């Protein structure tokens, strides 16, 4: 058995173990934390999508709120206005994320670096204002509720905490498996090569633009699916999810957890969620605490939590 | 109460799940994964906590865009709880407020409702103002089956969008407020109205409700000028105001409102149409602020008159004193700290309705939550009193919405002077939902 095969076996073992741990946690978590973990797993899917583009391809987007919101509204409006069932609506949300990412990618990938950040930020802001502008259909800043009676997926009532946890876990598990397969594939290695040295990768004969666009579409699709799932599981669709802070959040989660690691987004989302939850009990300046934590991590663990772990202890961590 | 009883309700304590619960969760995830339609056992247990305080979860906007409102909602809530506890509490039990900041964000709002209900074990949740936070949080309240008393003035409750666990008995909604302004505007200020409003849901509500109401009074909206939410200068919109406009109706909100007023004044100069606005624009803002001179002689809707009026009721006087507001609507300890007087009475009145509802239903604990909701649904008239210092009200149990008098004030010497009080009948519209037909 080669070193590579051993590393792959270990990494599969670790990730399946984390999924199993999350499965078991639902039996011991108190009610409040049980609900929180459902949220965290879905938001971690959003961060995992972001990580494909940022962590593995090296492209810092400031516009992923657009893809999350595309999924959220793709799901919500198809249920609210077209009367689609939850299954079709979830699919519509994922497709909306893919379409939005493709459209933005075709235009934004003409730029790189800071210009790419600004262009993606502007697209996301345009998306946010579009939602407000078409308030007659979207209910603008107020948003709308997905009625409890409509939130039935494959016969399961998603208003039930246990089903909701299960649905979030299944989505998370699928995302982990997809991400792991992706980063271990030749395509994933090319993405990492682009991140490390774009020119060298081009010289080796790879079509950089095509790879970047596919990475963006996968990233946007995952974000869209996460947005659709979030709306479906928690029953609310609103423009605040398209605002700039939801472009910053996945960046923070990935930075904290470890960019370019499969489990980093989960760790970062979990850490940030509970940091805000805990610190908001102490002070209204809880974002200051979050900011200080981020600065400290950047100073002392610039690779993020999982990234530092990989650097110092677990070299095979994907 | 035993020591173990006390422990079981301590916030943040990890509760050990029961065997049924374990089976339920195991069944749920396994069945979902396998796609098998096995319904899990539905468990649940309640504990009587008759000797404990009534724990009211307060979802407060301490940070974010609603922070100014949140600060005054907190002060009003604290004052109401002091009064209620001084008068013997609720059913002989003291009231305890557990406040959590929602950042004026709907995602965090839903999490806060969950935290208050499941971690802090509150009997109910109350106090939310901003509509998007209410709409984002209400589904969780319904799922958790925790009564959710909002103080929002949004039409979302009475529109039927929400659920049986969400009620708004302490403040009137925007539809009734706007509708009640139309007779005064048409008969006193003029029949040709130009509306200037922010181009999002709050502004659209005003546009739609007022347009219909003014037409019913024989008036007409001659122009609807929607201002994009990112706009910071407004002069280029003013030439769109038709020359034959009798009245400008404005509902701009946010930090840009001072610029809006200043530029409107520069555009019109001394000769201007009548101007009518909603005080939402200027809640927590000193009417004597530089740039607001142009508002002299214009009219405002007020949910509750900010300045103590010549005919001030004894109830308003006592309420104002209890909350710590002077005759100018500012904090008694800092004259620059202007209150959100037109809205914050809703917290005071809602807490008194919760008290009345709990006493009518002999509320003892979470097992009696549905009884509390039914008791509030059964309420009809609420007399002008120390519990309802804003005025008498009529509650509609079917729509979970209260109706009451609206006030119109004129700016005179940088003070708001009450000029008209609407009837409750002016504010009533046909039911759009009957929540009492929904099961718990």
What is the gist of this entry?
By secondary structure, chain A is mainly α. In chain A, 74% of the residues lie in helices and 3% in strands. Chain B is globular, with a radius of gyration of 23 Å.
Structure explained in plain terms:
The complex is a heterodimer of chains A (318) and B (440). Chain A is an all-alpha fold and 318 residues long. Chain A has helices at residues 3-25, 31-56, 64-80, 86-108, 113-133, 135-138, 161-184, 186-196, 198-203, 208-234, 245-257, 264-279, 286-300, 304-312; strands at residues 144-145, 152-153, 156-157, 236-237. In chain A, the strands form two sheets. A two-stranded antiparallel ribbon of chain A has the order 1-4. In chain A, α2 crosses α11 and α2 crosses α12. The longest helix of chain A is centred in the last third of the chain and has 27 residues, at 208-234. Chain A is globular. The model of chain A has no long low-confidence stretch (mean pLDDT 92). By secondary structure, chain B is α/β, with parallel strands linked by helices. Chain B has two domains: 54-172 and 343-404, Response regulator (Rossmann fold, 3-Layer(aba) Sandwich), CATH 3.40.50.2300; 175-302 and 408-421, Rossmann fold (3-Layer(aba) Sandwich). Helices cover 35% and strands 18% of the residues of chain B. Chain B has eleven helices and 17 strands. Chain B has helices at 3-8, 19-34, 67-86, 106-119, 131-144, 174-189, 201-216, 257-268, 314-323, 341-360, 369-377; strands at 54-60, 95-101, 124-126, 148-149, 166-167, 192-198, 220-227, 247-250, 274-278, 299-302, 330-331, 334-338, 381-382, 393-396, 401-404, 407-412, 415-421. Chain B has a seven-stranded mixed beta sheet. A five-stranded parallel beta sheet of chain B has the order 2-1-3-4-5, with helices on both faces. Classes of the chains: A mainly alpha (318), B alpha/beta (440). Chains A and B meet through α2, α5, β1 and α7 of A and α2, α4, α5 and α7 of B.
